[in-house]
């Protein structure tokens, strides 16, 4: 696969998903970057902003197995991973696999479940395998989690622990579409029966398993210049010494940012990365990986604000 073929495939994906999810084009691009960078993705936003619909449509255009878990306060780890049940006919225990045994897992409203259940995904997301009763079960190299969550200020939510947040390549903030996009959405729905399930539109499958592997191999072939690597490291290290940050980003975060930069360059049709790639991705990669200090919180500063200040303070390579 070459860059032109790769671009054609990703353009087709954007077109297919855009038929159903309107006004969220930047989010679609970020999800594609996440898929080819082999990173999991966390979508945060208020209800009714097409988070679940976006994840479902992306899964439709990729010819991989798809599973969904609706996280609730009474959900148990076994409901996600699976359990060994005794089979009276054979006289032995048999594994009943949970929804985690799939290629694309939609973890819907992940912060509605208590921490014990949230942690069931830690090993799966980091190692792409799960351990049940002492036996390891691989999930496959294509295993990919798209999790949605409501803002943590909402009633009945449990903030994800830092260790689990660090498993997500991106944390993407989903906002309401602009006025024109909302009018377009309602106009399209006005031509359908009222009870139509808008999320069940059949989309053309654009990407199969072999094409996905070829696209990821193309991303792997992109090498980052030493100046780009140094820029990434300096930005990440700056989060550890900034007076507004209590806990800065880790080396794993720097490595994740480098991988995302390579995927973004390929999506843009380039076999080289630019400082603009780093600046465009540093916020979604690091916003959930830094913990702000009391000074920033008192002043009402967000992680995005602090990260932008750090970017503005450091000179980009020329």
Automatic annotation (TrEMBL):
Coiled coil: none annotated. Keywords: ATP-binding, Nucleotide-binding. GO terms for molecular function: ATP binding; ATP hydrolysis activity. Signal peptide: none annotated. Pfam families: AAA_3 (PF07726), AAA_lid_2 (PF17863). InterPro entries: AAA+_ATPase (IPR003593), ATPase_AAA-3 (IPR011703), CbbQ/NirQ/NorQ/GpvN (IPR050764), ChlI/MoxR_AAA_lid (IPR041628), P-loop_NTPase (IPR027417). Gene3D superfamilies: Magnesium chelatase subunit I, C-Terminal domain (1.10.8.80), P-loop containing nucleotide triphosphate hydrolases (3.40.50.300). Residues 37-178 form the AAA+ ATPase domain. Belongs to the MoxR family. This is Magnesium chelatase.
């Amino acid at each position: 696969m070459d860059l032109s073929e790769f671009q054609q495939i990703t353009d087709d994906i954007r077109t297919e998903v855009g038929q159903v999810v309107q006004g969220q084009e930047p989010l679609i691009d970020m999800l594609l970057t996440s898929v080819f960078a082999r990173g999991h993705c966390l979508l945060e936003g208020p209800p009714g902003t097409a988070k679940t619909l976006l994840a479902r449509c992306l899964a439709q255009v990729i010819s991989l197995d798809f599973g969904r878990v609706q996280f609730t306060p009474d959900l148990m780890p076994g409901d996600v991973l699976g359990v060994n049940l005794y089979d009276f006919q054979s006289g032995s225990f048999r594994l009943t696999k949970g929804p985690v045994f799939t290629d694309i897992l939609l973890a819907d409203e992940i912060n509605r479940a208590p921490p014990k259940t949230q942690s069931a995904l830690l090993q799966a997301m980091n190692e792409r395998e799960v351990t049940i009763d002492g036996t390891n079960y691989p999930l496959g190299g294509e295993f990919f989690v798209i999790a949605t969550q409501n803002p943590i200020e909402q009633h009945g939510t449990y903030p994800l622990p830092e260790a689990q947040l660090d498993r997500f390549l991106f944390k993407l903030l989903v906002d309401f579409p602009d006025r024109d996009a909302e009018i377009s959405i309602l106009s399209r729905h006005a031509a359908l029966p009222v009870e139509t399930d808008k999320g069940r539109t059949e989309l053309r499958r654009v990407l199969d398993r072999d094409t996905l592997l070829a696209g990821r191999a193309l991303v792997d072939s992109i090498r980052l210049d030493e100046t780009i690597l140094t820029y990434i490291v300096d930005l990440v290290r700056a989060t550890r010494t900034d007076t507004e940050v209590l806990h800065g980003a880790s080396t794993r975060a720097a490595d994740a940012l480098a991988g995302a930069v390579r995927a973004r360059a390929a999506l843009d049709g380039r076999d080289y990365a630019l400082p603009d790639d780093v600046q465009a991705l540093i916020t979604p990669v690091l916003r959930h990986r830094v913990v702000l200090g009391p000074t920033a919180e008192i002043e009402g500063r967000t992680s995005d604000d602090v990260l932008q200040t750090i970017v503005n303070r450091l000179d980009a390579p020329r």
